[in-house]
Amino acid sequence: MNRIAQGLTLVLLGAAALTSTVPTNMYLNWVKPGFGPFLIAAGVVTVALGVAVVAAEIRGGSRAEDDGADHSACAVAAAEGGADGGGRAGHDHARAPRVAWLLLVPVLAVFVVAPPALGSYTVERSEPASAPQEGPPSGRFDDGLDEAAPGEVVRMDIRQFVMRAWVDEERALAGREVELTGFAVPNDEGEGWYLARLQMACCAADAIVNRVLVTGGPEPEADTWWTVRGTWVEPEGELVDVSEHRFDALEWETVDNPPDPYEA
Amino acid sequence: MSDRTPTPSSDSTPHASLGDSLAVGWDERGDELPPSDWGRRTGARRTGTVWLFALFITAMAVAHAWLSDQLTSEAFLAWATVFTAISFQALPFLVFGVALSAALTAFVPASVYQRFFPSRPSAAVPVAGLSGALLPGCECASVPIAGSLVKRGVAPAAALTFLLAAPAINPVVMIATAVAFAGQPEMVLARFGASLLASVVIGWIWVRFGRADWLRLPTPTHAEGAGRWVVFRDSMLHDMMHAGGYLVVGALAAASLNIFVPREWLGSVAEAPVISVLVMAALAILLSICSEADAFVALSFTDFSPTAKLAFMVIGPMVDLKLIAMQAAVFGWRFAVRFAPLCLVVGLLSTFVIGGLLL
């Protein structure tokens, strides 16, 4: 890989990072929203480095062609340097190893595939979530249920709903009307369908599935977005032993502008 | 593309270190250029390269128009998403680390490091280990720096400790680990402790048992004559190309494991206490992920115990396929075949001790 190729590869890589952040919001399919500025900075630096390398190489190249002096001694030295490849593999700084071509794979991924956010495929494959080890770190739920007036419909993230359903031993959720938004995942093994969202710590590679089994209402197509209003089906027995939480749908409507599929 | 092109910076003397190899061939450009016919051939290759990239971009545009709608396989799309996610999550960390380590290579003379280390090897080892915490960069950057330390008279054992500690416990890696394991500060502490412990112990073992003829000492080269910004730029380019390339390898492998290996397989392994740690260590060796990004990958193995994730982050920066190749390139194979197993054993022991204490 010569230096022009290295420089151009970096320009393309940086352009991919910038394309997915500045003119589009593609990066939200892969990483957290707060990561955007870092990606932009990395993209700018990468493009600048690539441009600097290509520019220096072109300037150097034109000088080389202007320079007609005889440097045969040096040419011999350079040839010997080339023959000495075995002993100093990895030291030839002007050329990059072949593995560096792989930097074009993320470029291909962005510009050709434009990977979408994870969806029902990931939810179907993932193992059913189990009860969280512990409650919210602060000891208080962040879902707004405690603050809401009795009888008021509480809008929650599915993450918050599942956390509350599994952890709150006082079962404050029972009998409350709740509104959840997520994408549909068919349930192949029985009645109802899943309303799911993904939760990520850093990027899509560590996405965790949160889902509720919706009963009542239609059985929508996979990956369509729905806002469902309904109530938690209070389980019998210990909360920890529940394998998945059920949600009794009262009203439902499709979502026109699906949000970021990942919940914070 | 991949055949050798005569370039102005080719020269006869073997380069001992990144700094030296980058430093030569720039200021003496006027004297050391190949003859004019070589220049023309290089120019033709350059034009060829530009055409190749133009073709590549056109092909991407065509593929975007024609192929994008055909790509509907959910498994493939999920794989592509996870791959892109890992690559782009790591990219800012990689760029930041590479820029900082290039700045240190370009703007801090190596003699400063030499003055910094005690002359007695057994005393220099812990100093080297701790000073690894100061130098941001991943393992790809620390291998050439360790080579130049040895060449400038720092005890080999201390340079090796530095080589192991720097990619594992530096601030960039610690911040990346803290971001990945948000809310689990004990994981950051355990990584710092286990990696530092292993690096220092390996250094002392090398002081006691190491033999000079196992190391192929880099030979001194030209005086540094290049402009600092040129060194900075080239050092950054070099590290981006090496580290970035292997990062993509790691992301490809990790995404494939993530999507195509049934979770139950890893899940069944994940529950066995010792086996799971060994499996994660083996994954760290095979995946060869840059230490600046490995915490995010470790985190994605949600089924594994904290000690197993710790093993992944302790072993990864010390032993992996790309690192072994780089160490062999700098210090010779006689060194690499002894050093890698030593690192693996000591690193695992350290993981079990620190993991048992903290996690």
Describe the structure.
The complex is a heterodimer of chains A (264) and B (359). Mean pLDDT of chain A is 79; it is low at 64-92. Chain A has helices at residues 3-19, 36-66, 72-83, 104-113, 120-125, 158-167; strands at 154-156, 177-186, 193-199, 208-215, 225-233, 246-254, 262-263. In chain A, β3 and β4 (208-215) form a beta hairpin. In chain A, 33% of the residues lie in helices and 18% in strands. Chain A has a 5-stranded mixed barrel with strand order 2-3-4-6-5. Chain B has 359 residues and is mostly helical. Chain B contains 17 helices and no strands. Chain B has helices at residues 18-23, 29-32, 36-66, 74-107, 110-116, 121-131, 139-151, 156-169, 171-180, 185-209, 228-260, 263-270, 273-287, 294-300, 306-318, 321-331, 333-358. Chain B is globular.
Helices and strands in order:
The complex is a heterodimer of chains A (264) and B (359).
Chain A lengths: L2 H17 L16 H31 L5 H12 L20 H10 L6 H6 L28 E3 L1 H10 L9 E10 L6 E7 L8 E8 L9 E9 L12 E9 L7 E2 L1
Parallel strand pairs in A: 1-2, 3-7, 4-6
Antiparallel strand pairs in A: 2-3, 2-5, 3-4, 5-6
Helix pairs in contact in A: 1-2, 1-4
Chain B lengths: L17 H6 L5 H4 L3 H31 L7 H34 L2 H7 L4 H11 L7 H13 L4 H14 L1 H10 L4 H25 L18 H33 L2 H8 L2 H15 L6 H7 L5 H13 L2 H11 L1 H26 L1
Helix pairs in contact in B: 4-11, 6-8, 6-10, 7-8, 7-16, 8-10, 8-15, 9-14, 10-15, 10-17, 13-15, 14-15, 15-17, 16-17
